[in-house]
Specification:
This protein has two domains: 92 residues, Winged helix-like DNA-binding domain superfamily/Winged helix DNA-binding domain (Arc Repressor Mutant, subunit A); 160 residues, Glucose-6-phosphate isomerase like protein, domain 1 (Rossmann fold, 3-Layer(aba) Sandwich). The longest helix is centred in the middle third of the chain and has 19 residues. The strands form two sheets. It has a five-stranded parallel sheet, with helices on both faces. Strand 3, helix 8 and strand 4 form a beta-alpha-beta unit. With 287 residues, it is of the alpha/beta class. It has twelve helices and seven strands. Helices cover 53% and strands 12% of the residues. The radius of gyration is 22 Å and the shape is globular. The chain starts with a strand and ends in a 7-residue tail after the last helix.
Length: 287
């Protein structure tokens, strides 16, 4: 849904501007860009959040939200929220069918993720920590197992020792202990809705072993985030029967890129070695 802010224009006339148009007229700090990105992607939900709740969703401080609405010309957050609630809905002809609505949600999630990437240092820091851990443990359970396996498969092209764990229980414990004995310092866990019990167990076991935990998930605040050292998140689209993880996969690819940058020349040599091997053994069909 395209949201409009209704503001007083010259002569007291109410003027409607889309959030995108309103935001484009201002120069934002990185924290303010996060707030703007969240509002564009989740404007309907944000209209019913407190300033503290909006700050938590956008991963900024509450004073940042206050300064943001003041920059836009509002007398306070309450006035800003009232205008969000008065937002004009799209006409029925623009709503689309349920499949289009599912794609629309993915687009909004990707737009919010793009805004978050404006502050790239935190992502680069996480990528560097993953690259520095040898071995690197990648975990994911149930619906989160496939994205974890894909991440591990690609990470192995630039990292010398990647271990993917998708089974819980004693198998998980054995794998974590073995990796720790071999020098592992950091693990990454993929945890997407619905969060399986194994995900929390994995975080707790890793912490007990002295491993730093990176959680790649759909929310910056959830039942799992208190047990993680680093949290990187991207929205999940839930409009259809089964969730779409388009933004999560984009975040995963960006994290791999950050790891590749951190690897430097050694990562490039590993990539080139694989390409030479692939060509020699004709692993891929060419056009």
């Amino acid at each position: 849904m395209k949201l409009f802010i209704r503001r007083e224009g010259k002569g007291g006339v109410r003027v409607g501007r889309s959030l995108q148009e309103l935001f484009a007229a201002h120069r934002f700090t990185p924290a303010q860009r996060r707030i703007a990105g969240y509002l564009i992607a989740n404007g309907e939900e944000a209209a019913f959040l407190t300033s503290m709740e909006l700050a938590e969703r956008a991963e900024v401080s509450q004073p940042s939200v206050t300064r943001f609405v003041a920059l836009l010309g509002f007398d306070g957050y309450a006035e800003f929220r009232r205008d969000l609630r008065r937002s004009a809905p799209k006409p029925p002809s623009e709503l689309g069918n349920k499949f289009q609505e599912g794609v629309d949600k993915d687009v909004r999630n990707l737009a919010a993720l793009r805004e978050r990437f404006a502050d790239e240092e935190s992502l680069r820091a996480v990528g560097g920590r993953l690259m520095a851990s040898e071995p690197l443990v990648v975990m994911g359970f149930r619906v989160s197992a496939p994205p974890a396996e894909l991440f591990g498969y690609l990470a192995a092209k630039i990292h010398p020792d990647v271990r993917v764990l998708t089974d819980g229980g004693s198998v998980l414990g054995d794998g974590l202990r073995q990796a720790r004995r071999r020098g592992a310092r950091t693990v990454i866990l993929f945890a997407l809705p619905r969060y399986p019990r194994e995900a929390r167990d994995a975080l707790l076991q890793a912490r007990e072993l002295g491993l730093r935990t990176v959680l790649l998930t759909d929310k910056s605040v959830s039942a799992l985030t208190p047990d993680a050292d680093d949290v990187v998140s991207a929205g999940v689209a839930s409009e259809l029967v089964f969730d779409s993880h388009a933004a999560v996969m984009s975040l995963s690819a960006a994290l791999l890129e950050a790891m590749t940058d951190a690897a430097g020349a050694s990562g490039q040599r590993r990539l080139e070695s694989f390409e030479d091997y692939a060509a020699e053994h004709e692993l891929f069909v060419t056009d």
